[in-house]
Structures are given as structure tokens and as C-alpha cells.
Amino acid sequence: MGLKLTAREKEILEILRKEPLISQDELARRLGIARSSAAVHVSNLMKKGVILGRGYVFNERVSSVVLGQSGVEIAVETGMRENWETVTRITTGIGGFAYKVATNLARFGLGVKILTALGIDEEGDRLIERLMKEEVDTSSLYRSSQHGTGKRVRVISQDGLVEYSDDVGLDVFEGLLDIWSHLLTGCEWLLVEHNFLEMVLRKLAQRESSQWPYICTLQLVGKEGSLADVFSDCHLLVLGVSGGEVEGWIEKGLGLVDKGLGSFVVTDGTSKVFVVNRKGSTEVTLAPNQGFEVTRGLEAFLAGIVYGLAQGYQYRQAVRIGSRVASLTEGGNV
Question: Where do the Carbohydrate kinase PfkB domain residues begin and end (predicted)?
Fold first, then answer.
């Protein structure tokens, strides 16, 4: 980003920092220039590496670490109606919390290190190749000769989501935390798969809380259930509600905020997003074209919110960045 910016480019940059989702038509109107001229200026900013496109993402690198499972993911969608017939769609790709979150963060231009465990097999080789292509730091991931790369089957139907997994065990990750401990506190943002939170917090408890990073996680829920107290030690919890009412989870989120949770974002992915923190509950309405399927896009949604917060945006803007990215993703099955 060493190229000099023109006065007009600096003017545009200031507008984009305040309103990263502004349309080029509105940008042109503000500047009193033609839309084609605005498009040229934006294109030049992208060429100079100042912004990365898609929501005018700024190239300001922030230290982040993502910890969780990665592996092969098979998605089975049943009960869908196409051309008056009920069909089943099966897709296979790379998935897992760590892979999906890390690659989405990297696409924003953030510096991302992934902490995950893979087997010494073809699936692991392919996954590492994809991570490196996305410029995710893979130097600290673990490859085991005792375990194969994880596999997960996700069955999505009108009744909700059911998962079957053959992942690297939590005991393997717990042993790895001794090796990774310095990385947990050496970052600004730590995004952790919710199953790993307890062991991570036990490790962090050995350090002063002032040395802790911003801990972020997500969970997919249905109509009923409860939220574990362990979430109260997080900076951000993103909750995706599949097949249930969003409003029913707000009170549960407020309970965690009272216990120490920084902020709680809950959504059904279609239209409603609520941000819950000590200031209360705020509804953010999604644009019609920015809805997403929570069973597939929740990791991208989390990554977008974290990017927004890391860049200093308020939650309303951060949520809209997250929803936009989630609406454009297939959840990591690439």
C-alpha cells in the first residue's frame, strides 16, 4: 500500500470508511461526479491495495487466530421442492468451523493463523493447499499419523439440522494447547469453536485477564434449548436460530450478558438480527438481498462481524458486513 493517493481518492476513502456499504450511485452523487468516474476511482483504490472490494473492505491487517475442526464436509439437503418434485441435494467440499472462519477472515485481508488438526492423508493435503491459496497461516496446524482428517455429514431438512461427525478428538486438541498457548494470548482476536471454549478458557486462566484477546464464537440452535455459562467469558457470541423464533433467545442472551458476555448477536438469517449487550437489545433489519441460510453461512457471518469490529465499526455496520458476506457464501463447500 505504498502508492500515493490522489486528493479525490483520499476523499472517497473517507466516505467509504464511514459507510462501507454505500452504492456507487450514492458515492457519485455525494461527490458530484458521474457514476462511471466513481467506479474508476474505486477501481484504482483496489489496484493500489487500499480496499479489497466486496463491501469496500479496507486492507488493514489485524492479528487473528482461529481454533477448531477442519475437514471434509458432506451436506445432504432433503425435502426441497424443485419443479413440483421433492428432491435431495448432496454436496461435498471442505468445511469445519476453523476452515470456514479462517478463509473468510483472510478474504477480508486480515492476518489469520489457523489452529486445527488434520490427518496425514490426501484430504489433509487438499485442505492445506486451499488454506495456503487463501493466504491463511498454516504454520501451526497439527498433522496426526494416528487420526485421519475429520469428516462430517450435515443433514438439513425442514425439521432442522442433524450432524454426524468423525473428527479428531477433543483430547488431541487439549494436548496441543500446551504448544499453542502462546498463540492464544499473542493475538487480538481469538475465534474458537464452541466445543473448545472450556479447555481454551482453562488455559487462558493461567494469564491475567488483561492479556486475553477478544474471544468470539458461534452456535447453531433450534426452537428450544439453553446457553452454557461458558459463553459469559466471551467478547462475542453469534447465535443462528434454525426452525425457531429469534425473540425467544434474546432473554437467554441477556442472562449471559449479565454474567459477563460482551455482546450477543442472534439471527434467523432471513430478516431479523438482534444485537444484545449492556446497552440493551437493538434490532438490525437485513436488506432483502442479504439474507442467508444459517445452517450454511453462520461462520461467514461471524467472520464479517469480527472484521467490522476490528476495523472500528459499530455493531450495526459490522452485522451488515457479516450478512452481506454470508449471503454470498455457500458456507465453505468449495
Answer: 82-160
Based on the domain organization, do 114 and 253 belong to the same domain?
A: yes
Torsion 67-197-59-109 (CA) sign: positive
CATH code, 140: 3.40.1190.20
CA dihedral 302, 201, 174, 92 (to 10 degrees): -10
d(CA 78, CA 75): 10
CA distances from 31 to 35, 104, 113, 280 (A): 10, 32, 39, 37
The answer to the question of residue 208 being in a domain is: yes
Burial 248-283 (b: 16+ CB within 10 A, else e): ebbebbbbbbeeebbbbbbbbbeebbbbbbeeebee
Cβ-contact 228, 249 below 8 angstroms: no
Does residue 35 sit in the same domain as residue 114?
Answer: no
pLDDT tens per residue, range 72-125: 999 898 876 666 777 888 989 999 999 999 999 999 988 999 999 999 999 999
What is the reported pTM? Answer: 0.79
